[in-house]
Amino acid sequence: MDFLGKIISILIVHAFLVSCTIFPFYSHQNKKDKVTRNKYTQNLENNAPSGAYLASYDVNWQLDFDCRNNWEFQQGDNLLPVSGCPQNDSNFIGMAISGGGSRSAVFSAAVFFELQRYGILQQVDVMSSVSGGSLTAAYYTLSCDQSDNPQKCPPTVEGPPRYIWEPAEVFSNLEKNFIGRWVSNWFWPDNILRYWFTYYDRTDVMVETFSDNLFDNSRLGGEGFRFHDLNPQRPFLILNATNNTRSDNLELEFTFTDKYFSEIKSNLAQYPIANAVMASSAFPAAFNYNTLRNYSFDEKRYVHLFDGGTSDNLGLSALEKVLCKIDAPSKRQSDKKMKLLVILIDAHIPTRGKSSRDPDPRSVFDYFLDTNFVDTYDTLMAKMRDDKIKGMRNILNKGDSKSGKLIHVKFDDLNKINRNIYEVVKNIDTSFNIGSNEANCLKHAARILVEGEMEKLRENNSWSTLAQDPPSEAYPIEPCLPEENNQ
Questions:
Q1: Is the separation of the CB atoms in 150 and 159 below 8 Å?
Q2: Cα first-last separation, the chain
Q3: Torsion of CA 179, 184, 188, 191, to 10 degrees
Q4: Which of 80, 84, 421, 473 has its CA 20 to 30 A from that of 373?
């Protein structure tokens, strides 16, 4: 068979495998509450534990974390055995992960691995993420630590095995060129047809890209992980998006939790993780809305979502709601031993601005579409960031919660510690594509910054016993080349 014949054969096979979805004359992936997908029923005999309950504001933080992380799966036992784990953990640990494309995804994963060395990642109760940070948060809460140990790796409801949480595999996946794969996915014949003749849009193409490369471990693809596949041994997960649906009482913040899905009478458990991550990452202009069907109306109504960073670019708002639930006066422990720790992983880079020496700051692209809207977006976000951080500090230090603490892991602290690494990481663009040296520099940045924060923690009498000392062995990292040597 000649080369052209092989290409045609591949395209025919591809079209056949996706034939059921070539013409999706709908714009949503969520099902009505209590409606079950046909493909899901094929896996019912699996009796795997559902992790869908982890997408919630009702964080069961008092469970002994070591018991939670090691509970043994029993056939037919599809929920975390709360009664089997002592509720003796007096430390609430929440984690917020900012946006920033692949820069945030790689940096937050590197921070995760460093916190794991100190024994803190294992104690985290809830993760709230936005945009690029959602790639890592979702990946971690779907993964497991040891594939050959059922106690450390509960089976998934959908059937495919979990990814393993170890540096080589994680970074290999997160450092992929998602933009290049996104563009190439446009040119599949079925995608061309869907793009021009159905609701299928740029966001859907990126959903397919994320699913194929991060959130689908099935043999033939097309059966990506869903919320019921979340690992019950992992922390609670809150993925954040922004709601821009016309309404008299519009709430800008939308989270992929039972609370919000119950309001639209939809089934969160069977909703694809890749779609939720993409909704959190759908940056305006680059991507279209992610749409959900609102089943609370008799007539057809929809919810339109995009980048969570426009309503909260740090992921702190969801943690504020969680803290208001667990730290309410009526729920506080009588002995006042509860301690609140929030770790903010912040991949923000300073706004570069325009040169005062340049009489015309336009780029070549600006002759077709002015990109100053990005500068406007960044400027508005800077004020929001400061307000969110200040608000979180106030919550952690108010009333009887005197032992509240915020750990803010940010690039700015590198400026005086390692100028070479700082100069590289602060110039990494917000994109879903990242260079190998940029990724290496982010890993070094995470190691340096977390080590500094752990030293401060050990100096605090209230928190000195939280971190493992000494930490476990560090994984190897390639050198970070200075910016001038990386041209």
A1: no
A2: 43
A3: 20
A4: 421
